[in-house]
Amino acid sequence: MVNEAGWDRVARIVVGVVLLVVGFGVLDGTVGIVVGVVALVPLLTGLIGWCPLYSVFGIRTNKGDRRADAR
Fold it and tell me: Whole domain around residue 39: which residue ranges?
């Protein structure tokens, strides 16, 4: 049930890692914690390849075989 293309997944993982580093390494206090926690969203969606908002709005960056997702 993947709805993200490879480039989308890579971009999300990169953004997630960068935000984690900024949140927990550069920023201090509450702002750093918030940025670090927000970083988990793109990181996790990039790792699993599925975005819940994409499903809600019917968006797919992965233009592969839709029947393969039904398995």
Answer: 6-69
For the entire predicted model, the pTM comes to 0.84
Q: What is the DSSP string of the chain?
A: ---S-HHHHHHHHHHHHHHHHIIIII--HHHHHHHHHHTHHHHHHHHHT--HHHHHHT--S--S-HHHHT-
Residues 9-31 pLDDT 10s: 999 999 999 999 999 999 999 99
Residue linked to tokens 């997630």: 16
Instruction: Give the chain's domain count.
Output: 1
